[in-house]
Write a structure and sequence with these properties.
- The chain has a 5-stranded antiparallel sheet with strand order 1-2-3-4-5, with helices on one face.
- Helix content is 34%, strand content 28%.
- A hairpin with a 4-residue loop joins β3 and β4.
- It is built from 3 helices and 5 strands.
- The longest helix has 25 residues, at 4-28.
Length: 148
């Protein structure tokens, strides 16, 4: 009977350790899939932008992710600010191939998702850090983007 107790204790410690590691990994990965409503709004913003501002022929959305790192709400009277950021992966075999769009959810009386940048390797690098209010590196890390 005494030989079984260390095994139970070791099993319990191992289980708790695995759960803690899984929780830490989940917290470090601050990204999520869009809700159905967000998905529709993101698709609408992407296709409106692609229809008017690019040479995309037949774009297909192949992935979406939203960073859960919320930029702090600006103090004082803020007329509008970006509260969330998303990455949308598109593929257009007939024109430019694989690309990414960075979108921001603009919070104002007329809120909605807005395309901030379109590109491939260095997408988003030209966006002003002020838009992210000090969280550009964290948001880019969440969305798996990098600036050279």
């Amino acid at each position: 009977m005494t030989a079984a107790r260390p095994t139970i204790r070791v099993t319990f410690v191992a289980t708790v350790s695995v759960l803690l590691i899984a929780t830490c990994v989940d917290v470090a990965q601050a990204v999520r899939a869009p809700t159905p409503r967000e998905r529709g709004a993101l698709q609408q913003a992407v296709f409106d932008y692609l229809r008017t501002d690019t040479r995309a022929v037949h774009p297909v959305i192949i992935g979406m992710r939203i960073s859960t790192r919320a930029a702090p709400r600006p103090r004082g009277k803020a007329t509008g600010y970006y509260g969330a950021f998303a990455r949308v992966d598109i593929d257009d075999n007939r024109a430019s191939g694989l690309g990414y769009l960075i979108l921001g959810h603009f919070v104002a009386p007329l809120s909605g998702w807005r395309v901030l940048d379109l590109g491939s390797a260095a997408v988003g690098c030209g966006i002003s850090p002020k838009i992210f209010r000090g969280h550009k590196a964290a948001v880019f890390r969440d969305l798996k983007l990098a600036c050279p």
